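Subject: for your reference before the review

Hello V.,

The reviewers asked for a structural picture of the protein, and I figured it would be easier to keep everything in one thread rather than splitting it across files. Below is the amino acid sequence we used in the manuscript, unchanged from the supplementary table.
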Amino acid sequence: MTVTLPLTLQDPQDHFAYCVQLLGGTTAASRRLGIDERAIRRFVSGERPVGTGLLEDMARALDTLSAEAIAAQQRIAETIRAGSAQG
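And here is what came back from the structure prediction:
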């Protein structure tokens, strides 16, 4: 999956939509944020305004995802090192 950064992230709606893609799409964002998929689509489309609270929730979800990704990367690196030490 390729995610491209919007030209400007000054619009909260654009920034929210970008972050939804970083989380893995509408379904994944819905699960991580605890928000119905239809609501996610409405925020992305601009049908509903993206407020500060929602952006704060998104920031927390991205922090969690980042920590999970770092832990996964570390486990992979450890597995590779262990395999190299045996071979």
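For the response letter, the relevant points are probably these. The chain is about 70% helix and 0% strand. Residues 43 and 49 are 6 Å apart (CA to CA).

Happy to draft the paragraph if you're swamped.

O.
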